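Standup notes, protein team

Yesterday: finished cleaning the Streptomyces variabilis set.
Today: Membrane protein structure.
Blockers: none.

Input for Membrane protein:
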Amino acid sequence: MAVQEARQGGADPAAHEGGCTCGDCPHGAREGHRRAVAAFLVKRDEYATGQGLPAAVAHSASASRQWVSEELAQAAEAVAERGRAEGAAWLTRLWQRTAVVVWAGVLALLLVQALTAIGAGWTSARTAGLLSAVLLAGALTAASWFHRARGGALAPVVGEDNRLSTSRAVAGSWVLLVAYAVLVLVGRLAAASDHRERDALIDGLELARGAGVVTVLAVVCGIAVLVRRVVGLRVQGQRLQKVRAHRPRAADLLTDDSGRGSFADIQYVVINAVALAFAAVRLARRPDQLPDLPWGLAVVVLVSAGTYLAGKYAEGGRPVILSVVRAREAGDLDAPIRTGDDIEIRGTGFVPAGAQGADRLARMVVRVGPVNVHVPLVPVVGGFDNPADDLLTVPVPADVEPGRVDVQVVTAAGVETNRYAIDVTE
């Protein structure tokens, strides 16, 4: 529907042009980004079928390819700019949504407590639980307001690549549960009048009662810190390619940077969600102590954390050039590589995860000797034929001197491949 609207010109395309970020405006940042994407897709598919080429370049395959690549690169940059504006506006509005979700959770807790109190009666534990939830919700709402430009309460779990961090989200969930459990004990302790009840509540904070949950809390928090360090070192060492996202998405918790489901992330989230649910039920049943997470379940969480950390060490890899050959079209004679010829660079890892967008592909550069050659965008219906993750096609520029020269690829993430020597003849 968006593509059809772009073909027909849309409704009042001059209105706002996507620069507005007000929440109720139909022509806001989100609408501007959607229109820019639709217009880009139409342009890409038209160029893929040979439409829209000016007569001055239509006679030359290399000239038309270069012209199409430049046009698509400029259009892709406009789309990326709209995407960044839409992401910033989305983050600004997110703090209100997080606050609504938090207080909706408090209301749900109140309803559950009211329903379960029928027949059993209202107890001081229920009052302490409700007041603790209100205090925690108030703190989260205040934090959301102070970080309203960065996603509200979700700001601490957004990584440096502008994606939701699985390790931080899991650690944050355990921190909130333990904080809530301690607040419940504090509330009950403040309301207790009998010294034996106060002693029992203090004993509920003993390590022997909550060793399992304390161990899990320490491990998941350590994993969150360690994963950040591991990823940072791997990026600096060019062993991992990271591309910044336009905005965080809930799917980031279960997928890799390219949007594919990640086993390490999924199992980490699922197992910790199950353990959190068990701990919450135990707290509801025994509000006089920290949730006594059984060691069997705690060990399962630790194994899951180890798997997640191993997955972070194993992911990624440096892009590699395996071979460089002269590109040959049907009917061409076999010949050595000369200036002006197209060469095929075969390898792996040329397109980093999350860099499949045209604006990222347009940033790829191939060094042929001392000359930097931007990889041309070759559109096909529904995507791009060049560049690809395992194959790049670029022309050998006329400024390259005949002789042995090195070829090196610089990806959209700024990572350099190995150097591959080729012979260029006159």
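Follow-up from PR in the comments: The first strand starts at residue 320 and ends at 326.
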